[in-house]
Amino acid sequence: MLEPSTGLGLRLVAGAEGLDHVVTLSRVQRPGLALTGYTEYIRYGRVQILGASELGYLRKLSATRRAAVLQRLASCRISCFVVTKGLDAPAELVAEAEGRGIPILSTPAESTPFIKALSAFLEERLALRLHLHSVLIDVFGLGVLIVGESGIGKSECALDLIDRGHRLVADDVVEIRRIGDVLIGASPDLTRYHMELRGLGVINIKDLYGVSSIRTSQRVELVVSLERWEAGREYDRLGLQDEKFLILESEMPLIRMPVAPGRNLAILVEVAARNQLLKERGYDAARQFVERVDEMIESKTTAARRPVHRRRRSRVERRRVR
Fold first, then answer.
1. What is the rounded distance in angstroms from the CA atom of residue 300 to the CA atom of residue 136?
2. In the beta sheet, which residues pair with residue 197?
3. Is 154 a catalytic residue?
């Protein structure tokens, strides 16, 4: 339930018994049509906003009609009402709210800015969340999530990237939340700015490299999976396999990166990030290379199938043959 500590300037007017009601949807509702008697689309879990237009309409109704309308509205399953602009809620609504245990909250803010602020607040609080054992790095402005088994070298790769000028978002545990179709990654409060390195222990990246080396949150746009090199296993040599990594029902581009002695993973992750940025702009080097090879093969095949026309000998050449 919404509380004064949300920073939205809310205060309780009536219906304290219903403060345990839950809000499950980030989209708020203005019950304008419901005030005429059509309450079919009133949904529990949505905040009902009463602004100047709704209250102005109610004031124009007769006392009997207003009481009947508000009684029908209050009989629906409602999470709470919020009255904007510091206006007074109708006495009939207050009475119904007290009797049915429906909270009525008041805010001094106007309806439009309050709805924007409340929707943003609810989207953040109600977003789907997931904690992944991984590392999140900002590489050239692209959020790269590095995953892999424990001890594979995720933190060492991230530290090398930080040393090359990129920024750490989270190490070891990444808290990912889905807002709309966007995945936002951040670090839990306890481990923010910190990394754990075997042999060194826990270090503070902000203190070692400065504020330019860290970010509090970043979109997740690419997943790099570090995997131990296996002899005899076939790996993608052209970059044509469009694999996906599923996070909170969202598919992210996935690159499998074999880990072997002598491979500079930081440079490879940098190149992967640059290549992904080019793909987002519509340029896919691997596919263009394959298309050029196909065109070359097709042109040579066409030339080989073309019939050879012999040139007719001239009269002088025929005499020489004789």
1. 48
2. 201
3. yes
In the chain, where are the structural domains located? 4-126, 128-280
At 209 the pLDDT is 95
Biggest CA–CA distance in the chain, Å, is 125
Q: Report pLDDT digits (tens) over 35-94.
A: 988 888 898 999 999 999 999 999 999 999 999 999 999 999 999 999 999 999 999 999
| Mean pLDDT calculated for residue range 287-293 | 85
Task: Tell me if residue 21 is catalytic.
Answer: no
For domain 128-280, give the CATH superfamily.
P-loop containing nucleotide triphosphate hydrolases (3.40.50.300)
Active-site entry in 60, 198, 237, 319: 237
State residue 226 phi and psi, 5-degree precision: -85, 125
Task: Please report the pLDDT score of residue 270 as a whole number.
Answer: 95
Residue of 65, 131, 133, 292 with catalytic role: 133
pLDDT range class, residue 301, cuts 50, 70, 90: confident
Residue 172 catalytic?
Answer: yes
Catalytic residue among 21, 167, 171, 172: 172
What are the residues whose beta carbons fall under 8 Å from the beta carbon of 285, sequence distance 6 or more?
239, 275, 278
**CATH number, span 4-126:** 3.40.1390.20
Catalytic residue (one of 21, 154, 167, 178): 154
Is there a catalytic annotation at residue 237? yes
| Predicted model pTM | 0.73
Phi and psi at 277, nearest 5°, equal -65, -40
